[in-house]
Amino acid sequence: MQTNMRLQPAEPWYRHRWPWFLMIGPVLVLVGGVVMIWLATSRPDAMVVGDYYKQGKAINQELRRDRAASRLGLRLEASYDAAAGRITGTLLSHGEPVRAAFHIRLAHPTQPERDRVLEALPDARGRFVAQAPALEATHWQVVAEGGARDWRLARSWSWQREPVLEIVADAQPGSGEG
User: Fold this and answer.
1) What tens digit of pLDDT does each residue of 44-92 get?
2) How far apart are CA 113 and CA 145, in angstroms?
3) Which residues pair with 97 in a beta bridge?
4) Is the dihedral of CA 141, 147, 148, 151 positive or negative?
């Protein structure tokens, strides 16, 4: 018995569709890896803190300033007028107006370059006006602090959802003695 089979030459690998189909997955992973490396290097993470010990000491200092605000019986009420681009309000200590200048720090939730520090100069009745043009409609972290940084009131605030910001020193978490 003789078999007369002629072997046909095989086609080159690149003419078959299975090798190409099997290469799609690894190629997509490589492209995704390059994109992730580019994103990681071009956009630094602003939330990472380099010196944790120093940050821990700063937290203890913040708690002391919160307690000082409680001892002073501070209460801040403010509102934002978007048309005029200013924050107006009152600062009271045990019901009496505070006449000393203080700072209002507005921290953007994700972009530190958009943070603002406003100077508030209260009048004899404790009313103040601080210029804040084009304040973005987002969830701000508000910190009001004395000119000498001896007290602090802090709270988050979305001015478009909550027209009046009210911060009462005794109502803050962590303000009690521990």
Assistant:
1) 766 666 666 566 666 666 788 888 888 888 888 999 998 888 899 998 8
2) 20
3) 92
4) negative
Q: What is the pLDDT of residues 128-154, one digit of tens each?
A: 998 888 888 888 898 888 878 888 888
**pLDDT score for 176:** 41
Q: Where are the beta strands (DSSP E) in 30-163?
A: 74-81, 86-93, 96-97, 102-107, 116-120, 127-131, 140-146, 152-157
What is the rounded CA–CA span in Å between residue 140 and residue 130? 16
What are residue 78's DSSP bridge partners? 89, 165
Q: What angle do CA 93, 138, 88 make, to 5 degrees?
A: 35
Residue with tokens 């939730």: 109
The closest alpha carbon to 170, from 153, 145, 147, 150, belongs to 153
pTM, two decimal places: 0.60
Which of 116, 86, 122 lies closest to 102, judged by CA? Answer: 122
